[in-house]
Each structure stands twice: as C-alpha cells, then as structure tokens.
Amino acid sequence: MSTFLQFHLLTSYGPSNPNRDDQGRPKQAMVGGSPRLRMSSQSIKRALRESAFFELDLKDNMGTRTKRLYGELVHRLVGQGAPEKAAREAAEQVAAIFGKLEVPKKDEETRVATTLAFISPEEWRLAEDLAGKIIAGEDLPKEKDLKKLVLRRADGAVDIAMFGRMLADDADFNRDAAVQVAHAITTHPAQAEEDWYSAVDDLNKAEETGAGHLGETAFGSGVYYQYVCVNADLLIENLAGDRELAAKGAEALARAIAQTTPRGKQNSFAHHPRAHYVLAEKGPQAPRDLSGAFFEPVRKPPFLDNSVAALTRTRADIDAAYGQAWEADCVLHVGIGGTLDDIVRFAGDAVRGA
Question: Quick one: where's region Disordered (predicted)?
C-alpha cells in the first residue's frame, strides 16, 4: 500500500504571461463551459526543476535533460587529452546508449540525439568512464550488456525520480514518475487581453515624431488552482531506497510549488506570486484532485476567499461521499494561519514515514 502526499494550492497572478501558446498568448482552456487561463504541467515542472530550492537543496542530485550528450563527451574527452577523432568515435558509441543520433548535416561534425533524454549524475560519470575505456582499447561487452554499464533504473537524480523519463529504445530503463503535476487553471472565468505598446528611438531629432517600434503583447490575470500528487513509496523506490534523499526532495518540492512560477515574459510583467492557500494531505487512500470545485466557476469577488471556500466545501462533500481521502493534513492560509515551514515539515515527514 502506497502513501500519497497531495498538494492543493491557490495562487493569484496579476497581469502576466508565464506560459505562452504558439502565438505568444497565455495558454487557455474551456472548463465547465467557461474560458480559463491555464499553465501547462510541463511548464510548471520545468520551473520546479530550475528553482533555487531544487538547485540548492538538491545539489549533486539533479539530472540533465539533453540531446547533446555526444558533443559534451567530445568536449570533455578532448579536454582530457584524447585525440579528437578517437573522442568522436567513443562519444558516438556511448551517446547512442541513450537514444539514436541524428545524421549530421553536410560539413557538420556535431551530432545530437533524436529525442531528449534525462541523464542522472551517476550515468554522466559512467558514460564518461566508458568513453575513456573505449579510447583506451579495452575489451567491452556487446551492445545489450554495454548499456548495463551506464544506464541505471534507480539512482540519485531526484528530478528523474519525481518526473520520470522514457528511453524509447530501452524500456527496461524507463522511470515511472513519482510526482504527478496537473495543469493549473483559473478558478473563475478569465481571458487573455492585448497590450499595444510603442518604443521611441533615442536618437530621434527634436522635430521628429512617431515611434521607432510598435508592437502587441498578450497577458492575463487570475487566481489559479494547482494540484500535485506524490507517490511517496515510488519516490523512495526510484531513489534506490534512499528515504532521506526522497524526503529532502519532497521538502524542496513543497517549498518550490508555493513560490515558483513559469518565467514567460517575466521581465515585462515581474510576476513573482506566492501561494495564498496551500493544503497538504497524506495517507494511503487513493488520491483525488479537487478541480471539480471550479467546474462551476467562481463568479463573485473576493475571488481568493471564495475560491478557498469552494475548495474546502468540495473537499468535505467528496470525503462525505467516498470516505476521508487523507489521514493527516496541514494548511497554510495567508492572513489566517499556518506557515510554509509547517507545509515543508509535513511533506518531509510524510515521505520519511512512508
């Protein structure tokens, strides 16, 4: 039986565009027949991985997602004194372990993989070591066994353990994600707006008028509901049983989701919100999100307070119908009570006790 750690957050964003669509506008969704602003789970996970809380608290335990293992290996091997031709041949053989390489374009020597691959710190070290052995002419096993010298099912990369990975050619080394991140949506109807702007040429002469540049940018604002679910037992398993590292990861996640946002157009809008309401739950019961609280959108201000009321009411109604979906909980409600340190401590203890 697994222990689940669930987070429900309500965060208000002023005019901003943290996650853009293919036309540069805020991403949107129709929910319950009403237009909402949306932030994709992919953009949120990227923001979490790049946050200072992951970078500092989980230093040396973060993976790298890249297509450019080949080029980096060549750079390192040549830097260690290997002949360039030998370095390229070794790097090509090792990089192919993580996925097929694209055919290089004419007159280009750099090669990239066809797909992004998550590579753990341990796998980076093993890949570099294997490349060195190839250059040294050591006898190596055949392809299938060669991969076992580098690829790992469980290791010390917390972000891979959390968000999973897929190696198309080697399903045995795929990683099931221990952390599920929902798309964030506004709790009320919201649509993107357009901002028309102009810029003046600083070298215009006094008698010259008009703008040196004209443009438009889109933005939106609202109260977003965010749901995150952690399978604590799978997180520990993905980290080879290192319970303390898994707990540190859960603590970093708790700090990051309350304070981190996708960074689209941040220089233009300076959006740095912090969650107004955080509900953390733990227990062995099947997880459930509370997005249903907002299928009927909040329509009257104050939107934050009414969103909190809708969330807590829906939670109580679901628990009354299905049974309580948690053994313990912890709440941060700005202006009411609770602290982020309480939430972080709760998250770490939930994983340590899993």
Answer: 13-40
